[in-house]
Design goal:
With about 425 residues, the chain is α+β, with helices and mostly antiparallel strands. The chain contains eight helices and 21 strands. The strands form eight sheets. Strands 1-11-8-21 form a four-stranded mixed β-sheet. Strands 12-13-19-16 form a four-stranded mixed β-sheet. Strand 4 and strand 5 form a beta hairpin. Helix 2 packs antiparallel against helix 3. The protein binds zinc ion (ZN) (2 copies).
Length: about 425
């Protein structure tokens, strides 16, 4: 009683020869759509759960080379669980689906750089497998992909207005003289100490009829299973040479500086896996101080502004002409401003391309009083208290009228969960490009 086969490829909407990236991309897109946590409608929840189970199962099988091979060969009957190990029970968190990065990648990404990377975790976050031992056949971790991170300085103006940014990324390229083998004859030699296994079996005689076997890493080849055959003079046996990758990054207007870009297999060459590392490009804002700004909660800009007592008590208009987005703003405050009072303006912080949906952080303004430097005579005090902001030279037409909002009265301006954890964690949008 053969029933129609479940078509995992159809479920994910991909071709039969789709590679891991295409599978992941398709899966993530569908996971975003069908994750039960995202479905509010109770009627649809059941359907979503089914769908989600299905796509997760498809992803689990297709992303595992062995399971995929078996599936391609034998297929799967409907109703039958994948007998080669299905997805874990329950629904994985979306953050799991999107790797260990906390954030969900914006679907938009960078112009001309579409696609999702990360098959194996994130730089500096483990999951890369490293060049560990392989107990099997000496085929040492050919699959493993390494990655490296590169930080690019970005200016506030570039964030708000966009730009094309030329960057040069130094990396260790494959040595052309030895094609990355470190050998004179361009060939790797199987390590004779461990027969290419990377590990050695130590046999110890414990008694007349008793031996113990112990594994230890092979020192001769540093667990690689191979050694260079005569030292390449081009690289001195290092297998690599320093090189630079030149790239132009297209920074769009209102760019989310937490975006991570990835250049696939263009970085440091690993002579073991014979692959180049993925380069993850992240951004660091370089000129906050030039604007007297500080950054909090990843996207909120904080400005300290000193005012005269007169202004604080007489209805002050703050003319702000130094916003990095080049607009000028006038904030009229019809109330007494207390010292160290904090006000904020929505949407005048940094762009946040969360989930492909552009938002902005806040501009937080902290008002501080201007105090006299020394004790004053009563005459000096009279004069001091009379000092106030002179707005005569200001062309008020150039200013956009903005309002401050009281943080306590504003409910929808809670800090976002996604950004609230440790700032050291790599997170944010990732878009990817082939080199
Ligand atoms: Zn060895
Ligand atoms: Zn060489």
């Amino acid at each position: 009683m053969s029933q129609p086969k479940k078509d995992y490829y159809e479920i994910l909407g991909i071709d039969r020869d789709a590679d891991d990236d295409q599978i992941t991309k398709a899966y993530r897109k569908l996971a975003m759509k069908w994750h039960p946590d995202r479905i509010k409608d109770a009627d649809k929840k059941k359907e979503a759960e089914e769908k989600f189970k299905e796509i997760t199962e498809a992803n689990t099988v297709l992303m595992d080379p062995e399971k995929r091979r078996k599936y391609d060969q034998f297929g799967l009957l409907d109703g039958e669980g994948p007998d080669f190990g299905g997805p874990p029970p329950g629904f994985p968190d979306l953050s799991e689906i999107f790797g260990q990065m906390g954030g969900m990648p914006g679907m938009g990404g960078m112009p001309g750089m579409g696609g999702f990377p990360f098959m194996g975790g994130f730089p500096g976050m483990g999951g890369m497998g490293g060049m560990g031992m392989n107990m099997g056949n000496g085929n040492v971790n050919k699959q493993s992909r390494t990655s490296q991170e590169y930080k690019v300085k970005i200016k506030l103006e570039e964030i708000f207005n966009g730009c094309d940014k030329q960057i040069e990324i130094p990396f260790e390229d494959v040595c052309g003289d030895c094609v990355g083998t470190g050998s004179k004859n361009k060939k790797k030699k199987v390590c004779s100490d461990c027969n290419g296994r990377g590990i050695r079996m130590m046999v110890r005689q414990l008694g007349p009829n008793m031996i113990s076997q112990q594994q230890s890493p092979c020192q001769a080849c540093e667990q690689k299973g191979w050694v260079s055959d005569g030292t390449c003079t081009g690289c001195g046996g290092k297998c690599t040479k320093s090189n630079k990758l030149t790239k132009t990054l297209h920074i769009k207007k209102n760019f989310d500086y937490q975006t991570k870009m990835c250049v696939r297999e263009a970085g440091n060459y690993d002579s073991n896996s014979e692959r180049k590392a993925d380069i993850y490009i992240s951004f660091k804002i370089s000129d906050l101080e030039d604007y007297g700004l500080k950054l909090v909660n990843d996207y909120d800009l904080v400005l300290e502004h000193e005012i005269n007592i007169w202004d604080a008590f007489s209805g002050y208009t703050f003319y702000y002409s130094n916003h990095p987005n080049k607009n000028k703003y006038a904030f009229k405050i019809n109330e007494i401003i207390k010292s160290d009072e904090v006000k904020f303006a929505k949407k005048l912080g940094l762009p946040n391309d969360d989930d492909g949906d552009l938002k902005f952080g806040k501009l937080v303004i902290k008002f501080t009083y201007k105090y006299p430097k020394t004790v004053l005579t009563s005459e000096q005090l009279k004069n001091f208290l009379k000092e106030h902001n002179d707005t005569k030279g200001i062309n008020k037409d150039e200013y956009i009228k903005e309002k401050f909002i009281n943080p306590e009265n504003d409910v929808d301006e809670k800090p976002r969960g996604r950004r609230s954890h440790s700032p050291d964690e790599s997170e944010g949008n990732v878009s990817c490009a082939q080199s």
